[in-house]
Amino acid sequence: MRFAGASVLDISPSLLFRFRRRGEIGGFGRRFVMTSRSQARDCDEGFVTVEEWRRWGPVSSFPVAVKQIVNDLKVLECKLDCGIEFGGNGGKLQGPFGVYEDKKHRATYEALDDPEKKFRFFSARQIACRLLGSRGYLCQKCWLAMEDCMCLLVKPCGLWKRIRFWLYMHPRDFLRQNNTGKLLWQVFGVQSATLCIFGIAEDEEIMWNEFKRAGKGQVCCLYPNQNSEVTLSVENVFGNSTSENPGSSMADEDKTLHFILLDGTWNNSAAMLKRLKDHAKLVWGEEDLPCISLATGASAMHKLRPQPSWDRTCTAAAAIGLLSEMSLLPQLSSYGLDKQADAVEEALVILLDSLTGRRLRMGRSITRKVRNTINIC
Question: What sequence ranges are listed for the domain DTW (predicted)?
């Protein structure tokens, strides 16, 4: 997943659609109509294989709920004899198909009587639409438009074997071109930096099974904001040898410390943290999930991607901050954590350059918009 860029044809053999470009819509989206090669054949064949799904970054099997929505979209396309069309900001469903499907999915959502089912349906639909709308347009490895693929520029680097990152990603950030969490598995590989999509049962099950095996003392959530409810610093975690603290067993060669990075907007991160704590209470009997606050500064991505305030940072910068702070501790200074932080920072600069170049070609501004700086966390 980390090396060569994907070509336009680097997609599942079961791809049933050909794309017709309808012109540029803004700087980050294009408008596509997906028309079936053979309506009769398309109504019988599947859409997304597990191989295609994993090429986008996940390690799970293709989620059942996402597969159901993809199949429903396909059946609806056959029924309406109308191509699936994506376009505009966010790549939303467009045209007559989009209008009909919007009414249909809202009715399905309202008919669900359980909040958890509503939430999972929302997440699955977000992922299904993003998968179909990105086929043949985005590189499956770096999530950039094919002509902007940065895969050949990113240098892989081994992460210290005692650390594993979990990118707990909101579905609205999945396949976003300016997402920075994807850089971690591009650099470190999917076994060292693993994607887990918020609300996708298969992903969350894999993550929590690993946490159960590791034990509560080996799991930390990275919430890099000084004004949040987080109380632990890196020095608190690794400088204290008490058994109650995460990181106290770093001398044990058989132990891996799992870091959860919340990969979503600051508005969404509060709900993501609450879900983690609720699940921690079910697993361990208490919702006191250890969290770490970093002393990190503004990310380079602030130049392109607005944040609520300058003390907030992106996911990749949070990982860089963690590795950098850990490398300063005497007991961890020999594990090359500073070099691993540098590898992510280099990838972040490459991503910034790719996005900046695209915006310049599109005639879009490359300066950060002024945002309200009220603390929203």
Answer: 135-364
Q: What is the pLDDT along the chain (377 residues), one digit of tens a residue?
A: 333 333 322 333 333 333 333 333 233 344 444 443 333 344 444 478 999 999 999 999 999 999 999 998 888 888 887 778 777 666 678 888 888 888 888 999 999 999 999 999 999 999 999 998 898 899 999 999 999 999 999 999 999 999 999 999 999 999 999 999 999 999 999 999 999 999 999 999 999 999 999 999 899 998 754 444 546 888 877 766 444 555 555 555 668 999 999 999 888 988 999 999 999 999 998 877 888 888 755 555 555 555 544 446 789 999 999 999 999 999 999 999 999 999 999 999 999 999 999 988 888 877 655 444 433 32
Residue 36's nearest CA partner among 65, 73, 88, 90 is: 73
DSSP calls for 9-61: T-S-TT--EEEEEEEEETTTEEEEEEEES-HHHHTTS-S--HHHHHHTS--SP
What proportions of the chain, in percent to the nearest 5, are helix, strand and coil? 45, 15, 40
**For residue 340, what are the CA distances in angstroms to 114, 155, 255?**
43, 11, 20
Tokens of 192: 């060292």
Distance CA 31, CA 133 (A): 9
Nearest CA among 375, 355, 261 for reference residue 311: 375
Q: Which among 202, 330, 210 has a CA at the least distance from the CA of 260?
A: 210
Number of H helices, E strands in the chain: 11, 9
Indicate the pTM of the whole model.
0.82
